[in-house]
Amino acid sequence: MAKKIEILEVSKRKLMGQGLGSCSMDELEDIDSQLERTLKIIRARKTQLFKDEIEHLNAKCGFMPMLLESAPAPAPVPVPPPQAKERGNCSQSTKSWEVETELFIGFPQMRCL
């Protein structure tokens, strides 16, 4: 029993990335493939949990997916073409934004605005 526990602990350490210096290439490839398989299982489970939660929330709120399908597509937003800038006009086309800030050093106080 103690030997099995030791083997499991060594395997766990290797999966956590500890003590890999003594591993052969085959062992490293086995660890890599095992981690990849486990990661795929975890991602699939996470995706399923999110889908279940979305379905639960949709049912709770009374959301009908068919309403979304029948809704018209939003109109595309027109993008203006880029304009060539002239050297002298840089200062004229640049917008200036002034922001007033206040520096306060110390403990926060309750302030009425």
Automatic annotation (TrEMBL):
GO CC field: nucleus
Domain of life: Eukaryota
Region (Disordered): 74-93
Pfam families: K-box (PF01486)
Molecular functions (GO terms): DNA-binding transcription factor activity
Pro residues: bias regions: 74-83
Signal peptide feature range: none
Domain named K-box: residues: 1-74
Protein name: MADS box transcription factor-like protein
Organism in which the protein naturally occurs: Solanum tuberosum
